[in-house]
Design brief:
single chain; about 210 residues; alpha+beta; SH3 type barrels; six-stranded antiparallel sheet; four-stranded antiparallel sheet; 12 strands
């Protein structure tokens, strides 16, 4: 995990000054009267991601913590597969807006991520919503990669894009970036989360023509 991801967390929704479930307004989330379920990003204390996710599951809230299995080697030569949290201090929460307003009052939730790139005409930024497609791409990458997946705090504009045509990432789309050591990585845009990068052989991709 790149330390600069912390820059993404500087803009966030403040918690109410007096947390109380009773202060949550009643009502529905959209015009047709059906509460809309969305993915939000809860900011929590680092190294508490899994515990927070379990607590939310206990109150029937769907959660997702981005983790990846990797081999850890100690100085004494001991080796063990561990589950690494790829995005520290973040728990993805799938709920309605009404539920989110209740969740932010919980003592183990610091705040919710806001969309810093949104043009609102004011200093107040809307709470970030993560699309189902972004969650699916993230899960796919973390589940299929034999290499560590890292995050970089930047959103990518559409330029030349490529599609993976062979291997475990077949079908995934993104852009190719050359590393300083001569290797290449596939950069996959994940909306307001920035970009996920993973090692890729350029021979395994094809350019998508506009």
């Amino acid at each position: 995990m790149k330390a600069t991801l912390a820059e993404m967390l500087t803009a966030s929704e403040d918690k109410p000054s007096k947390p109380s479930l009773a202060t949550v307004p009643s009502g529905v989330d959209d015009a047709v009267g059906v509460p809309e379920i969305k993915w939000f990003v809860a900011i929590v204390n680092a190294r508490h991601e899994k515990k927070v996710a379990e607590k939310l599951k206990d109150i029937n809230i769907e959660t997702y913590v981005a983790t990846q299995q990797e081999m850890r080697v100690w100085n004494n030569g001991r080796r063990k597969m561990v589950e690494r949290v790829v995005i520290p201090a973040m728990v993805f929460v799938r709920c309605t807006e009404k539920e989110r307003r209740r969740i932010v009052t919980l003592p183990y939730i610091n705040r919710f991520m806001v969309n810093r790139t949104a043009e609102t005409g004011s200093l107040n930024k809307p709470v970030a919503v993560i699309g189902n497609a972004e969650i699916s791409k993230l899960r796919f990458m973390l589940g299929q990669s034999d290499y560590p997946v890292d995050f970089i705090p930047a959103s990518f504009k559409e330029k030349d894009t490529v599609r993976v045509i062979r291997g475990s990432f077949r079908g995934l789309e993104g852009i190719i970036r050359k590393n300083s050591d001569g290797t290449h990585c596939l950069v996959v845009s994940l909306s307001v989360l920035g970009g996920a990068t993973v090692f890729i052989d350029p021979a395994d991709v094809e350019k998508i023509l506009s």
